Amino acid sequence: MRLLIVFGLLLFSITGYSQNMRYSYVAHPDSVLNVLVGQRGTLYKKWAQDQQERNAFFGGQSKKDLRTIIETMENILAKDNEILAELNRMKQGEVAELRRRNSDVAQRANSYLGESGALMEENKQLRRDLENYRKRSKEMEEQHNLPLQITIALLVLSWILFFFLRKKRTSSEPRQ
């Protein structure tokens, strides 16, 4: 009788544990887990029905009734073990999928970081080129203005020279 009580408590604790577990794949009606849970439900109904049997001489449970109950409980435990094994298999599958996704994300992140580094280097190079072009443009403007400056300087110099020579000529001619 103690064995029966311990076995019943064990059964209810496992049942409660497995029913409280929520996985994303339980929603699929054709999954192996749902089939196993359905079979376990059938065994549980058989166990509940066997509990109600009273075939002994004074209306109690006979040895045969108790053996049937024990056999059904053993079948329920075996089914619970199958369910737990299936849950572990599914969990391992999910863990493998998450690791694969994590690896993909890590690879993408590394790829983006590499591209980012390359873009930053290209940006630095473009800034250096821009600065060089600005310097060259400024030099070109200065060189462009140089002939104009030389021309203006020669014009001013020629006017000065012209006036200086004219003045000298006028001063060297005798006055009448």
Describe the structure in your own words.
- The chain has a domain at 2-123.
- With 176 residues, it is mainly α.
- The chain has helices spanning 2-20, 32-52, 63-172.
- It starts with a helix and ends with a helix.
- Helix content is 85%, strand content 0%.
- The longest helix is centred in the last third of the chain and has 110 residues, at 63-172.
Large-scale geometry: rod-shaped
Low-confidence stretches: 17-23
**Based on DSSP secondary structure assignment, what is the total number of beta strands?**
0
The proportion of strand residues reads: under 5%
Rounded to the nearest angstrom, the radius of gyration is 50 Å
H-E order: HHH
Task: Look at the helices and sheets and give the structural class.
Answer: mainly alpha
| Terminal CA distance | 161 Å
Q: TL;DR?
A:
With 176 residues, the chain is mostly helical. It is built from three helices and no strands. Helix 1 runs parallel beside helix 3.
Strand and helix map with partners:
Elements lengths: L1 H19 L11 H21 L10 H110 L4
Helix pairs in contact: 1-3, 2-3
